[in-house]
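$ ./design --mode recover --in tokens.txt
reading tokens...
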């Protein structure tokens, strides 16, 4: 399959008079293949360099191209150039309109005018003409103006300005009052006579005889002035991608606002063409009316969507349909326009299921990942259909980004007019981030992350890998847009609701990630676009891993202190392995984060006090002599042996307990006090030091009635313990002073408020 080349400006084509759709399609594909540019439409464009025709025509394009000195070539020029692989010289293929007439020595008018313009002998066939055009019919007058201006004539309407020195008057009927302008008066047939001469015009049906009656001349005039375009059925085959303004990002789409008043477009031809099964022609007809403010009826596009998704559409149709969708979005952005938003909600859904935008998008993602679509296809999915699904996903993502951007700038018409809100949240889910659709996005992202790594050796690895990476990136961006939109809509109203929504979604994602291999998980979490979601998801995943392996991590928000004091020590315990025959705590082998081979990392508790390792007996495991008596005994106040050892400053007993596997240093009694609270309250400095060296470290911010371990040490006057706590937490002297003042205030309150009994 040939790839289109760079578009050049030396080969810009229009086509006229070719009504065979297959032949025209081949022409246009050849133009694009060779790097040329095609301009469609039924009117002449002055920017062209070539006009392709099969014979001479009484058409606007043919006459204007001849007057402008353009190349007028036959279709064989395109076909032979395609066979050659590059553009051939045009001269052998230039249309000769006198060879059939049999007039010896006659020159070809097309060639004559082109050579004169090319040699700069004149700017156009009508150079120097100052024409007073007296034609009342607007369509015909506009057509004649385009022809005259293509030949560089100056055209005036009646009455002409006072300074205009009219050289010719062109009208349908010569009248006496026209002669008052002191200029010769001609019928509009004079244009063709000047270009081609009487003999050629006779062959084209554009001449008359001087002696004919006026009635006959009028009839001939009516025939001669009928320059209607013969390309009524053949519209644009190639989208005007080169003409379309390709702005750098989604912010370049037209800003919402009142559109200029445009005539109401008639889309009835689109419906007729789709009913006849002429889907490509329907797209071409549709593109003629895609202007700002012109929104085609959604039922007219639904058959086109059905044809695109059915699996038997041609690649050209799929490319055109994608262009039409982008043009509609650019000209009719959904924000601030309920009608435009409703249009996209109706079009972007399966035409048979009609379940909504998200079911279509979900089905599209799963179809690209190898699942069956909602409706069976007549044949296996082609690469072109997979590419179209990728383009459709990218288009929906762009629509969501535009919607979020408008909501961020306050341009949207509220939640109910937002496409994002209507796609991902129902009426009963508006207060939660983790709606059913959002949870399904997260599930798809987890599945796609696994699917991305499963490229088999027999497939086209590069193309398949790129396709899978693109799908994962689209899913990541879609989830990011949804989360950011929900955040910016609710963060100003209820911040606690937003935080709760992020935590719920993160916990859902953490559960989905339980079976992900480590290498996939390493790229899954950093690949999340929203920074907030990335942080809380990493927190939720790590808490789940630690919980499954008997390590308790506090539920306080993620912070650098939590990472250093809780997560890093926990990672050491999770990665612990057997070393030197000693039995070291080993995490559950079922955890996906843990390695089982020689690459697993090892960790051992470091400390100056050798008693910290007294619970580890070389080669024999735990012995009864190393287990303190009353380890599992809890008194009526809910105090464990760990609490009692801290209250009594029994350091050796404390070290034995801490060396035991699974020891919870944050265990609470019935009143909520932890062992660290008791050690700080009773001034047990050695116990506090041992607790702080333990991994995982105790919670420094656990409070009972507003009293933390730091407050307890200050209330008891144990400033050395307070400084130890502050040093451990890595706080500055300023924070120490702040905590001291706060501790003094709490001390004053403690005289009037009785905390739970110790």
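writing sequence...
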């Amino acid at each position: 399959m040939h790839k289109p080349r760079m578009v050049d400006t030396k080969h810009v084509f229009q086509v006229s008079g070719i009504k065979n759709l297959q032949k025209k399609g081949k022409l246009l594909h050849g133009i694009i293949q060779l790097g040329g540019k095609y301009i469609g439409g039924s009117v002449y464009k002055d920017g062209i360099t070539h006009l392709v025709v099969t014979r001479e025509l009484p058409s606007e394009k043919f006459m204007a191209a001849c007057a402008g000195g353009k190349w007028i070539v036959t279709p064989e020029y395109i076909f032979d150039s395609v066979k050659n692989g590059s553009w051939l010289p045009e001269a052998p293929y230039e249309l000769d309109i006198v060879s059939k007439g049999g007039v010896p020595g006659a020159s070809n008018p097309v060639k004559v005018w082109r050579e004169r313009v090319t040699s700069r002998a004149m700017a156009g066939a009508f150079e120097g003409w100052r024409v007073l055009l007296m034609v009342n019919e607007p369509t015909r007058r506009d057509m004649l103006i385009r022809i005259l201006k293509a030949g560089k004539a100056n055209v005036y309407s009646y009455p002409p300005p006072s300074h205009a020195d009219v050289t010719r008057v062109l009208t349908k009927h010569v009248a006496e009052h026209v002669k008052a302008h002191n200029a010769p008066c001609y019928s509009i047939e004079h244009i063709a006579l000047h270009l081609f001469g009487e003999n050629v015009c006779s062959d084209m049906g554009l001449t008359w005889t001087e002696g004919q009656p006026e009635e006959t001349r009028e009839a001939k005039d009516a025939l001669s002035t009928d320059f209607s375009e013969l390309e009524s059925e053949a519209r644009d085959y190639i989208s005007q991608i080169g003409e379309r303004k390709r702005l750098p990002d989604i912010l370049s789409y037209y800003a919402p606002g009142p559109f200029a008043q445009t005539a109401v477009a008639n889309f009835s031809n689109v419906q007729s063409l789709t009913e006849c099964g002429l889907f490509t022609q329907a797209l071409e007809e549709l593109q003629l009316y895609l202007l700002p403010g012109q929104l085609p009826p959604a039922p007219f596009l639904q058959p086109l969507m059905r044809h695109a998704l059915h699996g038997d559409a041609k690649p050209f149709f799929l490319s055109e349909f994608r262009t039409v969708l982008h043009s509609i979005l650019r000209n009719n952005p959904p924000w601030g326009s309920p009608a435009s938003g409703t249009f996209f909600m109706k079009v972007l859904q399966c035409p048979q299921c009609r379940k909504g935008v998200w079911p279509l998008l979900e089905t599209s993602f799963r179809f690209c990942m190898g699942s069956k679509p909602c409706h069976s296809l007549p044949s296996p999915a082609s690469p072109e259909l997979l590419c179209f699904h990728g383009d459709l996903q990218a288009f929906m993502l762009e629509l969501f980004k535009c919607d979020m951007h408008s909501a961020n700038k306050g341009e949207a018409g509220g939640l109910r007019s937002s496409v994002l809100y209507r796609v991902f949240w129902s009426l009963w889910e508006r207060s939660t981030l983790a709606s059913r659709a959002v949870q399904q996005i997260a599930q798809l992202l987890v599945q796609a992350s696994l699917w991305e790594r499963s490229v088999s050796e027999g497939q086209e690895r590069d193309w398949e890998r790129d396709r899978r990476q693109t799908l994962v990136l689209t899913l990541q961006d879609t989830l990011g847009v949804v989360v950011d939109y929900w955040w910016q809509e609710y963060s100003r109203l209820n911040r606690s609701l937003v935080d709760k929504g992020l935590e719920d979604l993160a916990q859902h994602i953490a559960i989905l990630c339980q079976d992900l291999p480590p290498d996939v998980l390493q790229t899954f979490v950093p690949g999340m676009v929203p920074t907030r979601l990335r942080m809380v998801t990493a927190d939720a995943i790590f808490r789940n891993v630690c919980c499954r392996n008997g390590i308790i991590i506090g539920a306080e928000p993620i912070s650098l202190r939590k990472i250093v004091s809780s997560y890093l020590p926990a990672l050491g315990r999770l990665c612990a392995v057997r070393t030197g025959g000693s039995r070291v705590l080993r995490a559950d082998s079922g955890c996906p984060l843990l390695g089982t081979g020689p690459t697993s990392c090892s960790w051992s508790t470091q400390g100056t006090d050798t008693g910290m390792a007294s619970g580890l007996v070389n080669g024999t495991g735990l012995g009864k002599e190393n287990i303190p008596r009353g380890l599992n005994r809890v008194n009526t106040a809910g105090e464990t042996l760990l609490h009692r050892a801290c209250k009594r400053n029994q350091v050796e007993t404390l070290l034995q307990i801490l060396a035991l596997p699974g020891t919870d240093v944050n265990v609470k009694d019935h009143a909520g006090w932890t062992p660290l609270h008791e050690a700080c309250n009773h001034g047990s400095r050695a116990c506090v030091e041992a607790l702080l060296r333990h991994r995982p470290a105790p919670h420094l911010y656990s409070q009972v009635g507003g009293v933390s371990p730091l407050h307890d040490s200050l209330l008891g006057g144990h400033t050395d313990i307070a400084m130890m706590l502050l040093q451990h937490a890595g706080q500055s002297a300023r924070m120490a002073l702040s905590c001291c003042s706060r501790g003094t205030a709490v001390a004053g309150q403690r005289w009037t408020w009785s905390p739970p009994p110790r």
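exit 0
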